[in-house]
Write a structure and sequence with these properties.
- The protein contains three helices and two strands.
- With 96 residues, it is mainly alpha-helical.
- Strands 1-2 form a two-stranded antiparallel ribbon.
């Protein structure tokens, strides 16, 4: 998750981490400076990227728009993308 131009996160990081607890890692940009690595991944100016462990599944990118409704929608979209991937995985009976 990258920071916006104003140096804030596009969604509530603590809420996102709480909702995805035990399912995904939430990595955030600490510095307001945009380095080449974040631009290469297309996560800058508030964008959120979801990367999956299976390389066959393409990463998803959610672009930031500055409105309260958009931030709520973005949070729900990121959670939905992660949970949909998790629900599609076949889990061996020994792990349940």
């Amino acid at each position: 998750m990258s920071k916006t131009k104003r140096g804030q996160y596009s969604v509530d990081v603590n809420l996102l981490a709480s909702k995805l607890k035990g399912v995904a890692h939430v990595l955030v940009q600490e510095s307001p400076n945009y380095d080449e690595a974040s631009k290469e991944l297309n996560e800058y100016y508030g964008a959120v990227g979801v990367y999956y462990p299976n390389k066959a599944v393409q990463p998803k990118h959610f672009w930031y728009k500055d409105s309260a409704a958009q931030r709520k929608n973005m949070l729900e979209s990121v959670i939905y993308a992660v949970m949909t991937y998790c629900n599609c995985q076949q889990v061996d009976g020994g792990y349940t």
